[in-house]
Design goal:
The protein has one domain (14-221). It contains 11 helices and 2 strands. α1 runs antiparallel to α8 (186-212), α2 packs parallel to α4 and α6 crosses α8 (186-212). It is an all-alpha fold. β1 (131-132) and β2 (137-138) form a beta hairpin. The chain has a two-stranded antiparallel sheet.
């Protein structure tokens, strides 16, 4: 396989990582909470997507509604748990988040929801074309992932830089008390932060479900630590750092597997990259010292 094909595959993987890690980074930036339950939101998004697609047969509608459902779940998690822990030691919401993840995952494995079995997600690239060049090939599913990821990250950039909500997020991330004192409605700002971040996680869940043609209740297990690695590697709370770390991690995984084979499990490479980088950049790539 050519290096250009490996690079294109890595960019597809990086797009998924970026969607997964962006919402987690947004929550940490505002609340300084490691939102482990974010992985459960990702799974719920995938489950909602496959159900809606089965009912209506329209991928884009399924993606949109799955993002809305995931976003609403994010607000419920914030208002039902973190809202009461804003002034608690950081370990308290962390433990609560782990408990939420385990609870939601266990609920999803019940027979009246997802059950213990995998479900196929037979969407075939939403009608997008296959791209073939002399140097690399992208399948319709890979084109879909890149297209959706670029569109959503462009939307996130506009919200962060061009709207009052984005300004409120940045203010709350720097100093919640000061932001509140100058008129920022913290509850609304944080709720919208959770909504958008969770919607991105739901989109990632749908795209991974389509890419692997598989959705199952425990699909967030790997995500829970892979996204954590990305936000630590990028610098806690740094969205550009999370994007950069996602690309580096995806490239490292693809090229190491392509050059040395499966000497290590693919997911173990993430921890290897994290260890190497933190030896020289203990605050992450774009983190503040």
């Amino acid at each position: 396989m050519s290096w250009m094909q490996n690079l294109s595959n890595a960019m597809v993987l990086a797009a998924i990582y970026i969607l997964m890690a962006s919402g987690l980074t947004m929550v940490y930036g505002v609340l300084k909470v490691l939102h482990i339950a974010h992985a459960a939101v990702y799974t719920v998004g995938a489950f909602a997507g496959v159900l809606i697609y089965t009912w209506v047969g329209n991928f884009w509608l399924a993606l949109f509604l799955a993002m809305v459902i995931s976003g609403l779940l994010g607000i419920v998690i914030y208002r039902g748990t973190y809202f009461y822990m804003l002034d608690s030691p950081r370990t308290v919401p962390l433990i609560a988040s782990i408990g939420l993840y385990v609870m939601i995952t266990d609920l999803l494995q019940k027979d009246f929801l997802m059950g213990p079995y995998q479900r196929a997600f037979p969407a075939q690239g939403a009608g997008l074309p296959r791209i073939e060049t002399r140097f690399f090939t992208l399948t319709p599913k890979q084109v879909l992932i890149l297209l959706v990821a670029v569109a959503l990250m462009a939307l996130l950039y506009v919200v962060l830089t061009k709207t009052r909500i984005g300004l409120g997020w940045r203010g709350a991330a720097q100093d919640r008390e000061m932001a509140a004192s100058v008129g920022v409605n913290l509850n609304r700002v944080i709720s919208l932060n959770f909504f958008l971040g969770s919607a991105l996680a739901g989109a990632a869940g749908v795209l991974v479900g389509v890419y692997n043609n598989s959705v199952f209740a425990t699909m967030g297990d790997v995500v829970s630590y892979k996204a954590f690695i990305i936000i630590v590697l990028g610098g806690m709370g740094s969205l550009p750092g999370a994007v950069l770390a996602s690309i580096i991690l995806a490239v490292a995984e693809n090229f190491l597997v392509a050059t040395v084979g499966y000497v290590l499990p693919r997911d173990a490479i993430a921890f290897l990259v994290l260890i190497v980088f933190l030896m020289y950049r203990p605050h992450g790539l774009l983190g503040k010292e």
